[in-house]
Design goal:
alpha/beta; Alpha/beta knot; Trp Operon Repressor, Chain A; five-stranded parallel sheet; two-stranded antiparallel ribbon; 11 helices; binds S-adenosylmethionine
């Protein structure tokens, strides 16, 4: 996977690529990264990248010319009318609150591509013509407004690169939140007793079958309590297997607001 980030502040994204698992993925040649400073494509003496919006209104917008030149410098072509975008292995993405929400499903889809070119906005955003001419996909990291696209691009990069083959072991991803349509189960490490609270007995039993069943029950319980919106999707899409459906059907009637005791206290 290759990440190409177009930004006015490359130092923000550079730091992430030099750290921890990502640094190792780069060293092993699984991930490649380059940052392009959009300001390098502003041709005037002051290297201007923004101007006031037509029609008035507060703030400034990023100018189309430096953005277009920066995108073309990394091989993003102007779109042809009727071009089938889904066939491209390289995708130009603009991070914007107006985009489609970044979910684990979208992260998985993007992680299978060869290259993501990520355009980070600043100020009040970018000239719409750049989106219309060059951008394949618009992605939002949530229903809130950040001051710039770099943090959003890093969220997208972080959510996708760890799903790229060989970056981390597949087992680590199996029971994570959102895999199989459920949140993760609660986890515990040493000490066995922390400030009088003991680790659930079943986890100390060494009985793999019971541990697996307990964890699945906890995933369902937690999802019902904290993200009930995920349950219908899991039930209707066939994402939940028979055992999960049985647990959901049993716990669903108990999952009202009265059932909000601490899950750890019940063991
Ligand atoms: N005027 C824009 C609006 O109301 O949608 C917000 C502009 S925001 C201050 C500046 C830049 O931050 C945007 O161009 C975008 O790149 C980035 N940004 C802000 N919030 C974001 C979000 N939720 N998801 C993705 N990118 C975001």
């Amino acid at each position: 996977m290759r990440y190409t980030v177009l930004t006015l502040f490359p130092e923000i994204t550079d730091a992430f690529f030099a750290t921890s698992i990502m640094a190792r993925a780069i060293e092993r040649g699984i991930v490649e990264y380059s940052a392009v400073n959009i300001r390098d494509f502003a041709l005037d003496r002051h290297r201007t990248c923004d101007d006031a919006p037509y029609g008035g209104g507060p703030g400034m917008l990023m100018l189309p010319e430096p953005l277009g030149r920066a995108l073309e410098s990394v091989g993003v072509r102007r779109r042809m009318p009727g071009e089938e975008l889904s066939l491209r292995r390289k995708r130009a993405i603009y991070l914007t609150p107006s985009g489609r929400p970044l979910t684990q499903t979208l992260a998985r889809e993007l992680s299978g591509l060869d290259e993501l070119v990520l355009l980070c906005g600043r100020y009040e955003g970018i000239d719409q013509r750049v989106v219309d001419m060059y951008i394949d996909d618009e992605v939002s990291v949530g229903d809130y407004v950040l001051s710039s696209g770099e943090v959003a691009a890093l969220a997208l990069i972080d959510a996708t690169y760890r799903l790229v083959e060989r970056v981390i072991t597949p087992e680590s991803l199996d029971e994570e939140s959102f895999s199989g349509g459920l949140l993760e189960y609660p986890q515990y490490t040493r000490p066995e007793i922390y400030d009088t609270v003991k680790v659930p007995e079943v986890l100390l039993s060494g009985h793999h079958g019971n541990i697996r069943r307990w964890r699945l029950e906890k995933r369902v319980e937690r999802t019902l309590r904290q993200r009930p919106d995920l349950i219908p999707a899991g039930m209707e899409s066939g994402l939940f297997d028979g055992e999960t459906r049985e647990i959901v059907n049993r716990l669903l009637p108990l999952s009202g607001t009265e059932h909000k005791e601490n899950e750890d206290e019940r063991d």
